Amino acid sequence: LPFVINRKEEHGGTVEFETYEELEAAFAMGDIHPMDLKAAVTKEIIDLLAPAREHFGKAEIAAKKAELDKVLQNR
After folding, report:
1. Which of 68, 51, 53, 48 is nearest to 1 (CA)?
2. Which domain holds residue 18?
């Protein structure tokens, strides 16, 4: 999957990178603004963690986690 940085058209529009090296080169040349990169990385991390957040948000799992937290607190 390509790494996508969504930007407004006046800031260059959406760009896609197939490799880390392409992204690194574009950033080093100043073609990618640090805040654009930060926003894109943040979105990817949120998307990556979504299944875990959903899993641990279930009532049964949350109760088990709370129980484990209580046990670990008493150590």
Report:
1. 48
2. 3-73
**The two three-digit tokens of residue 12, written as one number:** 């260059």
Here the CATH number for the domain that contains residue 30 is 1.10.240.10
pTM here is 0.75
**DSSP letter, residue 12:** T
What is the band of 56 on the pLDDT scale with cuts at 50, 70, 90?
A: confident
2 token code pair: 């390509």
Give the amino acid at 5. I
Domain tally, the chain: 1
Give the integer Cα–Cα distance in Å for 8 and 56: 35
SS3 64: helix
